[in-house]
Sequence to fold (284 residues):
Amino acid sequence: MTTLDVDAVLAFVTIADLQSFTRAAEALGATQGAISVKLKRLEDRLGRRLIERTPRTVRLSAQGAVFLAGAREFLAAHDRAMAGLSATRRRFGLGIAAHVAGPEVPTLLARLNAHDPGLTIEVRMDNSRVLLDAFDRGELDAAIIRREDDQRGGDVLGPEHFGWFAAPQFDYRQGEPLRLAALSPTCGVRNIATRALDSAAIPWTEVFLGGTSSMVTAAVSAGLAVSAFSCRLAPPGTVEVSQRFGLPPLPSTEIVLFSTLTDAKSREALRTLAAAFREHRPNS
Fold:
């Protein structure tokens, strides 16, 4: 019977997640040569090539794609078995910006829980600035936010692109003030949108201000106004209207993961979280 080596399977999954031997070695605190040896040992044990590697790309082979889900389950089962030896549960305070959270969040949390069942995950959702302040005060172990004016480092999870969205029946005549729906004046996306309109000398008026995100979405979906949204989180049924109405392009920003955790187990949890987020984002 073929038996699997945990370290070798972990090396394979990390390479698959990061699509890079170099980044996988950095994530696992090993050398690139050691990662390659572990992968080769696993492939020899299985009698299958799992990773296709060229000078420019690293990708799963057909057999690797089939094996990946089972490999994740194998590692999760191993972690659950090890966690069962400890009666102490660890707290993990995670902040996720409300304007970043999308349909991938349940998958992120499920992956994090499967990776380390010994974690008690406490999730807080708010705007980026509030979460970053809470992180600075030590109230959160990690925070996933949209980078706005803060230029500190962090692990970039991917770009965030914005567009102008409205209901298909929304009517706008050039020369008239653009009817804009937005959140509070402190909302980062609102500021991006209004600065772009001002720079393009397009008059605008806020017909819906200060509500919740669901209320803004309802106003746009009903055809009452236009609003700037992340392209991946635009309300269903709305359409991008930049070209149609001659609206200015909106600058992109980044989704960033902040954390000060340094112990090995917590860093592994963060790598799992980052990989799951990247995996479930559409190509940008």
User: Anything to note?
Assistant: The chain has a mean pLDDT of 82. The first strand starts at residue 51 and ends at 53. The chain is about 40% helix and 20% strand. The radius of gyration is 22 Å.
